[in-house]
Amino acid sequence: MADTLNQNTNIVVSNKKRSSGSDECDHHDDSFFVSKKQSKSLVWEDPAAALANARHEFGEHGGVNMSIEASATFTVMEPETMRRMFAGELGPDRDFFIYSRHFNPTVLNLGRLMAALEGTEAAYCTASGMSAISSVMLQLCSSGGHVVASQTLYGGTHALLTHFLPRACNITTSFVDVRDLEMVKEAIVEGRTNVLYFESVSNPTLTVANIPELSRIAHEKGVTVVVDNTFAPMVLSPVRLGADVVVHSISKYISGAADIIAGAVCGPASLVNSMMDLHQGSLMLLGPTMNPKVAFELAERLPHLGLRMKEHCKRALEYASRMTKLGLKVIYPGLENHPDYALIKSMANKDYGYGGILCVDMETEERANRLMNVLQNFTQFGFMAVSLGYYETLMSCSGSSTSSELNNEEKELAGISPGLVRMSIGYNGSLEQKWSQLDKALSKMQDKMPF
């Protein structure tokens, strides 16, 4: 891979192979990664507009949709070309591809769209959200490395940091309450800490991270800020707020149909290039490759992500408000009684709301299970299932499901009640139709269970 970054934008990959002897091919750069010139600032840019401004990839025969490049390997016209590709002299920026674990044209295009969405120079799409997270951590940290992370994280990420990385890689993590900025500052050891890691909106407690302040603290000590933005695509833009790297489980809101497992790393071109290095790159060598057919499907869903997010968020706020009036203990960042309401309001992109997830604390697991049972099996409000971002409402008791990797003490520190029900609010049916189902379930339980 080249060491330099060309900041030109909208580099078009031709459908025709160029000869490796061409003068044009000898001009090597990394432009295929670049979405557009970036500068970190708090100037607002509508993520939907950024997606619309990204290059549109047409099909091989002029189709309005791009073609799917399903090949695992790619041919060359001249024997010398292959040597030059492996030497890093020729690459995807000039339409030279080697092998789809390295680069694939269809997956590369989805990466450009993800970079536009998050306002980063580059993005690389992976086979899962956990593979994106793992690859970033392994690229930024070496043996003996140190991470400071939020104590409230998705269970799989928590297990990675708590168990796997210390055992397999000698990388340790200090967990902190990211709302306590002094605690974060004290946990970062200048010269030793490599990464500050947190979720923009925490899973499942819906704590909102102060991204500008956390980024400032980390950067003062030379630490890279990695933010999982799975819960808040379109709602928050972490890099525009000061973060360095954004990771996603694309399986959730971006996919929107609960039928695809995928992830993404969005960040500086220098980082993504290093992750694709033939000798030292975590993505290149661990091989969490996205299938180009999956990349094609996801690229077709991104244009309506903004419309979907607005409806998810609109309904979540409406239901959270109504449930609060009924006396339930509701956790939702868009409610004025949420401790982070002013913070998320100051950071959120205009018109996208405050997220599509709300939590109801039923205090005990038994009560939580009764509520979910009635909601699914008696009133058809939603489904008992993990994950989020589906067009139907999905419900789970976090402590015994997606956060089950945490022990009881860790759950208590993270603020995860045994009866915490996480609801990913869908948009299927009308708002009033679904509210009627929810209200009916609550009425059914009210006689036996005080709220």
From TrEMBL:
<dbReference type="GO" id="GO:0019346">
    <property type="term" value="P:transsulfuration"/>
</dbReference>
<dbReference type="GO" id="GO:0030170">
    <property type="term" value="F:pyridoxal phosphate binding"/>
</dbReference>
<dbReference type="InterPro" id="IPR000277">
    <property type="entry name" value="Cys/Met-Metab_PyrdxlP-dep_enz"/>
</dbReference>
<feature type="compositionally biased region" description="Polar residues">
    <location>
        <begin position="1"/>
        <end position="13"/>
    </location>
</feature>
<comment type="similarity">
    <text>Belongs to the trans-sulfuration enzymes family.</text>
</comment>
<dbReference type="InterPro" id="IPR015424">
    <property type="entry name" value="PyrdxlP-dep_Trfase"/>
</dbReference>
<dbReference type="GO" id="GO:0005737">
    <property type="term" value="C:cytoplasm"/>
</dbReference>
<dbReference type="InterPro" id="IPR015422">
    <property type="entry name" value="PyrdxlP-dep_Trfase_small"/>
</dbReference>
<protein>
    <recommendedName>
        <fullName>Methionine gamma-lyase</fullName>
    </recommendedName>
</protein>
<dbReference type="Pfam" id="PF01053">
    <property type="entry name" value="Cys_Met_Meta_PP"/>
</dbReference>
<feature type="modified residue" description="N6-(pyridoxal phosphate)lysine">
    <location>
        <position position="252"/>
    </location>
</feature>
<dbReference type="InterPro" id="IPR015421">
    <property type="entry name" value="PyrdxlP-dep_Trfase_major"/>
</dbReference>
<keyword id="KW-0663">Pyridoxal phosphate</keyword>
<dbReference type="GO" id="GO:0016846">
    <property type="term" value="F:carbon-sulfur lyase activity"/>
</dbReference>
<feature type="region of interest" description="Disordered">
    <location>
        <begin position="1"/>
        <end position="27"/>
    </location>
</feature>
